[in-house]
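Here is my example:
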Amino acid sequence: MNLKERLLLFSLLMGIVLVPINSTMISVALSPLADSLHVPLSAITWLVTVYLLVMASVQPLSGKMNDLWGRKRIFLSGVALFLVASFGCMIGHSLIAIIIFRALQAMGGAAMTPAASALIRVNWPEHRLDRTLSIMSLVLGLGAALGPILGAALLNLGSWRWLFAVNIPFAVMSFMVGYFVIPESRGKAAVVDWLGALFLLGSLLGGVLFVMKKIPFMWASALLWIVWMALFFRRQQTTQYPLIQLKLFRNIGFTVANLSILLSNFTMYATLLITPIVLENRFQVSLRSVGMYLFIFSLSMSILSGAGARLSLRMGPIGAIGTSFAAAVLSSLFFWVCLSMMKIDSIPLWVILFILGGAASGAGIVSMQTLSLKSVDKTDSGSASGVYSTFRYMGSILASVVIASYYEHTAVVFLGMAGMSLIGLMMVFASAKKIYSV
């Protein structure tokens, strides 16, 4: 790898690593943020929910925006937006202001990630592409793993504002280096379905408000949710360039893969959000220790995700996904018994719990993505990736909503995680025969 390639990769990685860090880092800061801003914990979870809502709605657009306006321009715009939004979060003095800047953070992140992947694909030769993409995947995994422990360390400096300030030097370095070394490139002419993205955001937001039961006239909100959903599906069926190609769901393998990542990500994200609350409030565990436990969870998930390809080769995608869900059922039940029902205060046991939970979440990820992509024609791989990403975020959004509603009833959360994983297990094996016969 020559100097220009090293600088190019440095710029891209310095930008995109902020996305997973800011997704998991906030998990250890929910209680301190709620205390500082004098709001209930159920309100502070909107910092998580809004970030995920915007990521889920904007990311499907990003690929087409890269083709339309240029990958360098979109990447640097995403970095700049993330930089400004992080500064806004840092100086924000109200929950509403921070929520708005978190939404802008998510918009920047949603623009950066697909652009970085595309820039790597067009700037590295074919024989070195896999190695470069693996470096990118490793950095993203490490970012997610280091987020909680970094968040705990920054909180120990005395203020939650450091969680957002830490983004600024990374974003500045990424932008300055990228401005000079990233070559501009475009893909085929594309049409961006802005209206479809608006309807998708409305559908997701309407669903969140209905499930949380936080607004008056709940049934009116349910009706509004149905209207948004109807508008979205109608738009996808009638437009020439849909945001999500609904025809892809005619393939049973594609449908199972996307529902699997939704259910799996629900369990993973619920673990990241509920366990810090339990450990801090019930066991008086320090923030540094909480961050370490979540680091163990994320590291275990990253390692098993990396080994997922070998697991898929040995057992097949369905076997690997089923094994992941079975392990998730067990780990969720263990969390319930140890942290909620019996309230066992044992550091070695907690370490084992988080290792098992992370392994269960990571074991099936590669197989889910592989099954999704192999279930469609190569010409539809871009659309399939966008759908997969959207379903992944939908699982995380559902988890944040459940935590906001039931964080005081941890048994409900842990049993809900086990229930979701059990549904996934039954779905995968019920559809195995149909998938393998296609």
Remarks:
- The mean pLDDT is 88.
- The chain has three domains: 1-191, 193-240, 248-438.
